[in-house]
Amino acid sequence: MTSSSGAYAPRSPSGYPDLLAENRRLRARAAHRHLLDLATGILSVQLRLSLRDAAEHLESLAEATGLPVADVAADVVNAASGNGSPVVAAPPDGGAQRPAAPGDGERVVEARRERRAAAAAETAGDVGEAARALLEGGLAPLGATSLWLWHCTPVGGLRLAGHAGVGATEATAWQWLPPSVGEPFRTVLAEGMPAWRDEGPTGSEVLPGAAPDAARALVPLRRRGATLGLALVGWPGPTTLEPRVRRAVDGLLEVAATVLGGEPSPGTDLPLLTDLLDALVHPAMLLRTPGRSDAPVVEHLNEAAVSALDGPEVPEIRSLALALPLVHKDLARLARRAAASGRVQRAARLPAVARPDEPAPLLDVRVLPGGEDRSVVLWHTRGDPRLATERAVAQLQGVATFQDSLTGGGTVWSDQAYGLFGLGRDQSPIPLLGLRSRLHDGDGEALSELLRTLTERKTGAHAVLRLLMPGGAVRHVRVAAQPLLDGSDVTGFAGVYQDVSDTLRTEAALTATFDHLTLVRNQAEVRRQLALQLQQAIVPEVPNVQELPGELEVAARYRPAGEEYQVGGDWYDVLPLPSGRILVAVGDIAGHGIESVTGMVALRNAERALAFTGSSPRRLLSWLNEVTLRTGGGTTATAVCALYEPEGRTLQWSSAGHLPLLLLREGRAELLDPPQDVLLGAVPEVTYQEQRTVLRPGDTLLLYTDGLVERRHDGLGSGLYELAEEAERLADLPLDRLLDGLLGAATGDTDDDTSIVALRVGGGWETSAQEEAGDAS
Predict the structure, then answer these.
(1) Mean local confidence (pLDDT), 517-524
(2) Residue 94: pLDDT band by 50, 70, 90 thresholds?
(3) 19 pLDDT band (50/70/90 cuts)?
(4) Based on the number of CB atoms within 10 Å of its own CB, is 185 exposed (0-12), middle (13-18) or buried (19 or more)?
(5) Region for residue 242 given its phi and psi (left: phi exceeds 0; alpha: psi -120 to 50; beta: otherwise)
(6) Range scoring the smallest mean pLDDT among 330-339, 341-350, 617-626
(7) Per-residue pLDDT for 470 more than 90?
(8) Cβ atoms within 10 A of the Cβ of 646, count?
(9) Fewest CB atoms less than 10 Å from the CB: which of 148, 387, 493, 698?
């Protein structure tokens, strides 16, 4: 597959609706063509005709019965599959079956509709598109309003592969079903028999749906004796699912099993990407970047890239450092940034690539996220005159001129037109008016509209037509013509034929790849939103100051990371215990994303449960260290754990590699250096140290994570000093305004989460001074 249009140019946002509308139109045409091709093939076998003659026979059947050709095709396919005679009847002469007349009954109409829906699903681009086609074309006329399609996973669970009539939030909630999923899922999977629920789930069953008593059908999707997944059809309310409806649902979902069985597993879209790169005339490569510390691997180079890198051994190179030694670090950085942000990364120019004859810089570099851990690198380089000439000639070979005379002068073609039509120079040129016999059946109306514009409106026109080649192949040809006028009379046409087959195939591949990458980005966004919601649910902000026993005021804030990661593993906790003491804890799990959030949830829940034992902070951290070692999968965390005794205003605390606490007393800030103990999850059987701090009325104590103070290019001490300075400036403010001010002035720039908890002992430092003076007297 080649391309004459160059590298991929992103479409503007304003073009997306047109692209989607065109895509829907093409899908509908593909479904129509697929149904006609099935019927043509069946007639060809039954009557022992050529495909062309069988197609003409299908058209004659449509004319004879007065039915649309799509209905005739549906009748033929249904009859061949044994679906509902009397849909068709055999003629007296024993020839091919004939379509039923329009009055044969409601069953005929239903069978045709179901067959058209099946054809639309079979030609869909993905499982989601197939689900929409089945719902809109086949299930909705039965009263259904939703369709779910789950695929069986290798570990025994179910993954949502496609859906229709379902909201995004509900689809997210049912995206994954574990192997332990409840009834009726397990029974339908085990027995391979559908479950029909006219009035909704029974007993303890839980199924998605429009209402608790809405009808549902849970159907196994089987192919070649194996269960591939499950389908759930939903109705808006209670419905009697009579045998006719059940048969129709079963028949439509047989198509869903076929579509589901052909769904590519993650990572098998690599051939599509490599074919796409091979279609480009500019250099392109496919990179795989397994991890932040791993060197990128070159998975594919197109022909232009091999030529640009100049060497027969280049296709065997797997290391990016060997393929592009001068720019591999820059490209690796752009690839990781593209994967993290989900956006195209660009560089106007990268250093020259070493070549034996002359340097070749990489110009206008673009790195696109390719899903999973892959990225696509596109670039331009200084053109080789020989290659440029060959490309120019190849482009000109796809263009031919023609001139038709309507007054007896015949048709004149340029030399290129004979090759474009697959004719020899000794054969007669085909006039534009005689082109219909060489076109695909579906393009006759487009040619008629082109001729009407030339002859009746007497203006120029153009169209893309499918030209049938002598060997049976199809070539897409753009025709651009102008009328030749003598006064007001049209005497002929003049114009250009252009072979645009490769361009259309490349555009289709680009559209499919764009849809796939959009799906990957949408999945990443759903994953990010789930992590953020989980983080906020487990570690909510405390917007208002809360009062706890012992005249203790508490406020907390959480700020997610920057745009690249969005959410991480910070947590904090302030929990009154049955003993009267108050647990105060802050921690930070290494990493970002859903994995770190789930690890944070496990560690925080363990810390809360262990605190009720009444044990000391040092003992709590020792237990949490063992929990992290056994459940964290190699994850580490920092944490500070404290118990506040209201009666004596004492704070007993331990730290696992965490930052110092900050104490504000009488308007001055002091950092309380923690013991030098190791992180949670680093080594087993750690004994942590413990410190005791007596607080006074008016004291404010701050516990925080490193996102507040850590900076890329400065030591940690600089950030801590600025935090203490800012805290002194804001010391007289109420607790909530103090936290907002500290977050607003935060100096951290590492795109890390920030958590901060403030405790203030009731009274005030003036009250404390008066108490001390009274004690002295």
Answers:
(1) 67
(2) very low
(3) low
(4) buried
(5) beta
(6) 341-350
(7) no
(8) 17
(9) 387
Measuring CA to CA, which residue among 743, 655, 737, 667 is closest to residue 700? 667
Residues 660, 720 contacting (CB under 8 angstroms): yes
Cβ(90)–Cβ(97) under 8 Å?
A: yes
The pair of three-digit structure tokens given for residue 554, joined into one six-digit string = 């508490």
Residue 648 amino acid letter: G
Q: Are 483 and 508 in contact (CB under 8 A)?
A: no
Encode pLDDT of 178-224 as tens digits.
Answer: 777 888 888 888 888 899 999 999 888 889 888 889 999 999 988 77
Task: Select from 503, 303, 279 the least CA-distant residue to 387.
Answer: 303
Alpha helices in 496-654 (DSSP H): 501-538, 594-611, 617-631
Number of CB atoms found within 10 A of residue 164's CB: 21
Between CA 495 and CA 481 the distance in angstroms is: 4
Residues pairing with 475 in the sheet: 467
- Phi, psi of 27, rounded to the nearest 5 degrees: -65, -45
Q: How far is CA 321 from the centre of its chain?
A: 30
- Copy the structure tokens of residue 282: 């500019």
SS3 343: coil
Rounded Cα gap, residues 162 and 157, in angstroms: 16
Q: Which amino acid is at 41?
A: G
Decide if pLDDT at 768 tops 50: no
Which is higher by pLDDT, 364 or 404?
Answer: 404
Are 270-389 and 539-769 in the same CATH fold? Answer: no
Residue 361 CA to residue 379 CA, distance in Å, equals: 10
Q: How confident is the model at residue 81 (pLDDT cuts 50, 70, 90)?
A: low
Among 686, 692, 688, residue whose Cα is nearest residue 642: 692
Q: What class does CATH assign to 398-499? A: alpha beta
CA distance 21 to 442: 19
Residue range 512-523: mean pLDDT, rounded: 65
pLDDT, tens only, 494-507 = 888 888 877 655 55
Instruction: Please identify which residue in the block is written with the tokens 């906020």.
Output: 536
Q: What is the residue whose two structure tokens read 């099993």? A: 257
Confidence of residue 744 (pLDDT cuts 50, 70, 90): confident
The pLDDT of residue 383 is above 70: no
Spell out the SS3 assignment of 97-125.
Answer: CEECCCCCCHHHHHHHHHHHHHHHHHCCC
- Cis peptide bond prior to 201, omega within 30° of 0: no
| Average of per-residue pLDDT values in the chain | 77
The residues near 646 (Cβ < 8 Å, ≥ 6 apart) are: 548, 549, 550, 551, 552, 580, 581, 582
pLDDT tens for each residue of 690-717: 999 999 999 999 999 888 888 776 777 8
CA dihedral for 323, 324, 329, 335, sign (positive or negative): negative
Please check whether residue 592 is in contact with residue 663, taking contact to mean a CB–CB distance below 8 angstroms: no
**Ranges of each domain in the chain:** 1-123, 144-263, 270-389, 398-499, 539-769
CA distance 446 to 466: 10
Distance between CA atoms of residues 130 and 136, nearest Å: 10
Instruction: Give the residues across from 287 on adjacent strands.
Output: 298, 375
The verdict on domain 144-263 having CATH code 3.30.450.40 is: yes
Hey, how many other C-beta atoms are within 10 angstroms of the C-beta on 702?
25
CATH architecture of 270-389: 2-Layer Sandwich (3.30)
**Which pLDDT belongs to residue 581?**
93
Displacement of CA 230 from its chain's centroid (Å): 22
Residues 730 and 766: beta-carbon distance below 8 Å: no
Note the residue count of the chain: 777
Locate all alpha helices (DSSP H) within 135-242, ordered by sequence: 168-173, 185-191
Helix (H) / strand (E) element for 486: namely strand 474-486
Phi and psi torsions of 699, nearest 5° = -65, 145
> Considering only 18-22, 132-136, 410-414, 649-653, which range has the smallest mean pLDDT?
18-22
Fold classification of 539-769 (topology level):
Phosphatase 2c; domain 1 (3.60.40)
